[in-house]
């Protein structure tokens, strides 16, 4: 596996530990790989500005897969190299479903989150706490009426996101959304749902980035832990799943590394890249 030229990594519960940080050792390993010419690529459900500063500004980070592959960004050239966005009419149908349940509603559009005050000012009602609570406050703009905003700004919608306080309700909503057969539905956190355009996932974004860089997928390693990492793990030549990852993801892994609290990504890079 010494031919790995790109390492894509999920953030929450993969690269980031329980405190949404990475250790000095992991930073050193990422930099060592970058110094060897390996592309270090955050592959996240987050928008670009929600990627932690220490990673977003790292010298070896030139690209990012954002919003589960809906937008692939070239940081050096400050340009978007690939998009796979939702149509406004699709988003309205998705919101029709979410409106029936006790859950938040928001969209990511052109690198910014948007949420109504009825949700943004009551995040604690949906079991949103700690670093995720702070992250949402930093990355969402308040809009009085989300549907009106979408009507006036229909282009560039990357993702619809929803948080739940009841996990049985979350599973019901997942099934109902998937039954519509109009979008890709997955989760990245224990209490959320993330909805993208049909065919939009981290695997699709990663494949387009590899093509852009002139790499084959055999030269790509991907690390993840959750449902929204599935297509990326399948697409990569080397699919690495965290010990804290889901059972389903472990079943398709090429390698199961240590947990996110034990420098699992760094361990895999040391083993297969350095």
UniProtKB/TrEMBL annotation:
SUPFAM superfamilies: HAD-like (SSF56784)
Stored InterPro entries: Cof, HAD-like_sf, HAD-SF_hydro_IIB, HAD_sf
Pfam families in the cross-refs: Hydrolase_3
GO cellular component: cytosol
Parts forming coiled coils: none
Domain of life where this protein originates: Bacteria
GO molecular function, one term: phosphatase activity
NCBIfam families: Cof-subfamily (TIGR00099), HAD-SF-IIB (TIGR01484)
Protein name: Haloacid dehalogenase
């Amino acid at each position: 596996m010494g031919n790995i030229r790109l390492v894509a990594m999920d953030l929450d519960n993969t690269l980031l530990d329980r405190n949404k940080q990475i250790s000095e050792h992991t930073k050193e390993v990422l930099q060592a790989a970058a110094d060897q010419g390996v592309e270090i690529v955050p592959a996240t459900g987050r928008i670009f500005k929600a990627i932690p500063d220490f990673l977003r500004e790292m010298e070896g980070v030139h690209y990012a897969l954002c919003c589960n592959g809906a937008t692939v960004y070239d940081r050096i050239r400050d340009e978007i190299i690939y998009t796979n966005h939702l149509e406004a009419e699709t988003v309205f149908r998705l919101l029709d479903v979410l409106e029936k349940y006790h859950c938040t509603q928001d969209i990511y559009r052109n690198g910014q989150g948007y949420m109504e005050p009825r949700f943004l000012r009551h995040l604690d009602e949906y079991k949103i706490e700690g670093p995720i609570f702070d992250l949402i406050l930093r990355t969402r703009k308040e809009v009085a009426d989300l549907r009106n905003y979408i009507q006036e700004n229909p282009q560039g919608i990357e993702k619809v996101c929803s948080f739940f306080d009841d996990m049985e309700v979350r599973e019901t909503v997942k099934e109902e959304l998937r039954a519509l057969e109009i979008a890709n539905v997955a989760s990245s956190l224990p209490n959320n749902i993330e909805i993208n355009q049909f065919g939009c996932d981290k695997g699709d974004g990663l494949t387009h980035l590899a093509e852009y860089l002139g790499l084959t997928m055999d030269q790509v390693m991907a690390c993840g832990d959750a449902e929204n990492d599935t297509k990326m793990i399948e697409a990569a030549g080397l699919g690495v799943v965290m010990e804290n990852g889901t059972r389903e993801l472990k079943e398709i892994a090429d390698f199961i590394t240590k947990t996110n609290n034990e420098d699992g990504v760094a361990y895999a890079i040391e083993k297969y890249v350095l």
